[in-house]
Specification:
Blueprint: E1 3-5, H1 10-27, H2 37-57, E2 61-67, E3 73-78, H3 81-110, H4 113-138, H5 147-170, H6 173-202, H7 213-221, H8 225-248, E4 249-251
Antiparallel strand pairs: 1-4, 2-3
Helix pairs in contact: 1-6, 2-3, 2-6, 3-6, 3-7, 3-8, 4-5, 4-6, 6-8, 7-8
């Protein structure tokens, strides 16, 4: 079956390319990390919430989810069984990639960008409430993180929730469309950058003893962490390839309405 780039997808592809170019350009601008600091916290929330949600959904327990001021994060959880541990450890990088692909597909096929931003606000708010506030309260006597870490997580979650909601409510359609495309690109590129960092951490003779998601997988399965890094990279590439195909091409039969017309 032949595929081609859909005519109605071209404005979206241009927007996605612009978001990608801006993202890459910011890597080479001094102090630009401060400009995208909230977005970095957003992607960290997505990464850590993926760990927490999978641990919870597979029958495990989540003690806490915290975000640090340097953009890193950690989830303390007790997975349920061998497969629960595998899925929980794999969820961070794959979950961030999947979330980025989901944003692309939602804006391409289903919802308006303003509704997507509001849905993201609700998601971050619920994650902050359940795993950033309630989980630490219920596990107060066995917490492995400090009060300052919990406070920063809650403040960050509240501000991100408010910012996303404000964008969804007050931004123009064009600004909202770009915001969603930019968040999607950030999730996808940050997932790959983090996997690159994880690759070097788990490479032989280069910090393979550090505590990472790949190290957790190595401890659970007996396979070296570097093997899991390659597996996660392969799965991420597959997800992005499928997502971009659905996002950008159409069969020769019918076209979708253009959500950028407004």
């Amino acid at each position: 079956m032949k595929y081609k780039v859909a005519k109605d997808a071209k404005p979206q592809i241009y927007l996605l390319l612009i978001a990608t170019v801006i993202t890459i350009a910011l890597w080479f601008i001094p102090y630009a990390e401060y400009l995208v600091y909230p977005v970095r916290l957003f992607t960290t929330f997505i990464h850590e919430s993926s760990h927490a949600l999978i641990a919870f959904l597979t029958g495990g327990s989540v003690q806490s989810l915290t975000i640090a001021s340097d953009g890193s994060g950690v989830v303390y959880s007790v997975p349920s069984g061998f497969f629960g541990a595998m899925l929980t450890s794999s969820a961070g990088y794959l979950g961030t990639t999947a979330f980025g692909v989901l944003l692309l597909l939602l804006i391409r096929r289903v919802f308006s960008a303003k509704k997507i931003l509001m849905a993201c606000a609700v998601f971050i708010g619920l994650i902050t409430l359940f795993f950033g506030v309630l989980s630490p309260i219920f596990n107060i006597f066995s917490l492995q993180v400090g009060i300052s870490s919990i406070a920063f997580t809650v403040i960050s979650g509240v501000l991100l929730t408010a910012g996303l909601f404000a964008l969804g409510k007050y931004a123009s359609p064009k600004v909202a469309n770009f915001a969603v495309a930019f968040l999607a690109v950030q999730c996808l590129l940050n997932a790959f950058l983090d996997l690159k960092t994880l690759f070097f951490i788990n490479a032989p003779f280069f910090g393979s003893d550090m505590q990472t998601d790949a190290a957790n997988m190595a401890a659970a399965t007996g396979f070296p962490g570097i093997v899991w890094v390659f597996i996660w990279i392969g799965i991420s590439i597959l997800m992005i390839s499928i997502g971009l195909r659905v996002y950008a091409v159409s069969q020769n039969s019918k076209q979708q309405d253009l959500p950028f017309e407004d």
